[in-house]
Write a structure and sequence with these properties.
Layout (H helix, E strand, L loop, with lengths): L1 H27 L1 H29 L23
C-alpha cells in the first residue's frame, strides 16, 4: 500500500513541477507570443481591408432610376408635387 501512495506522490510532484515549468516558460516567452499574434492579426486585417476595397472599386455603382417607384406597391405618403 505504501508503494502505491509513494507512486501517487511522485506522479503528483511531477505534474506540479511540469505546471510550474510550463508556466514559467509561457511567462518568459509572453512578449514573443504577443508580438507573433499581433503580426498575424494585423496581416489578416490588412488583407481583408485590401480585398474589401478592391472588390468595392471593381463593383459598378447602380444609380436608381427616377422613373420607377422606390417602394413596391406605391406605398407611403402621397407626394405634394
Amino acid at each position: 500500500m505504501q508503494k502505491v501512495i509513494n507512486t501517487l506522490a511522485l506522479i503528483s510532484f511531477s505534474v506540479s513541477t511540469g505546471i510550474v515549468v510550463g508556466g514559467y516558460y509561457l511567462y518568459s516567452q509572453k512578449d514573443s507570443f504577443i508580438q507573433s499574434v499581433t503580426e498575424n492579426i494585423l496581416g489578416e486585417v490588412t488583407q481583408v481591408v485590401e480585398d474589401t476595397i478592391v472588390n468595392s472599386l471593381n463593383t459598378p455603382i447602380s444609380i436608381p432610376s427616377t422613373e420607377s417607384n422606390s417602394v413596391p406597391g406605391g406605398g407611403g405618403l402621397p407626394s405634394p408635387f
